[in-house]
Amino acid sequence: MLDRLTAVFEAFTEDDEGLGISELARRANLPKSTVSRISAELVAQRLLDREGDKLYLGVRLFELGQTVVEPRRLRRAALPVMTDLRNMTGYTVNLAVLDVTDVVCIATVLGVPATPPVLRVGGRLPAHATALGKAILAFSPPEAVHALASDGVLGRRTPQTVGDLDALVQELGEARRLGTAVEREQCVVGRACVASPIMGRAGVPLAAISVAGSVDDVEPERVAAAVHAAAMTLTRRVGAHRNP
Q1: What are the residues whose beta carbons fall under 8 Å from the beta carbon of 242, sequence distance 6 or more?
Q2: What is the pLDDT of residue 149?
Q3: How far apart (Å, rounded) are the C-alpha atoms in residues 189 and 198?
Q4: Model confidence over 21-50: pLDDT tens digits?
Q5: Which among 173, 163, 165, 167 has a CA at the least distance from the CA of 147?
Q6: Which of 25, 46, 75, 187 could bond 32 through an S-S bridge, CB–CB 3.0 to 4.6 Å?
Q7: pTM
């Protein structure tokens, strides 16, 4: 049951103006009758809202999300910096945290001109296939890296995805040296990303910020310094917010 509920929630995107049952079932890859029944229960619990034949993520779900303190603080501190970085580079800017083997997006500022984002708010991607994940893992304890694959083999999303844990460790060492991680078509064909970690106390990475765009447009050597500067700004802001 939980996997079906998750599929229903993940079918929504931040750009949707409501979804009908048929579209929701298609996106969730579930039978229409199942989605109709689940939706009725979620509406009763105020986790979904209904207006006519359209369904929306509910106010109660938003309220519950606001109780997750750390992502909320990070997002609030990050949005002005993300907007500045978007304005400076023109690319979509993402903010994400690590959740075991995945990165989870907690904020996005769309590029100019806006294009459909690869990673939406609340969405997740394999950490080893993303610059966001590599930026965080580069400064994480070794056990966090080895937890990605007990057999040393990593899942591939594209032909360019690093599939070997030893090779990933080498990439992370380079990211640690430079302060930024780069990913070109390892997550999505035709897309590239440059990310840098936001650090907390004792050098523990809290999140990462990135710019992402077309592989033909994103030039790491041109944007890496701006991404790193944005991450350093957020590291200072988060640290100042936490200090008494």
Answers
A1: 200, 201
A2: 82
A3: 27
A4: 999 999 999 999 999 999 999 998 888 888
A5: 165
A6: 25
A7: 0.71
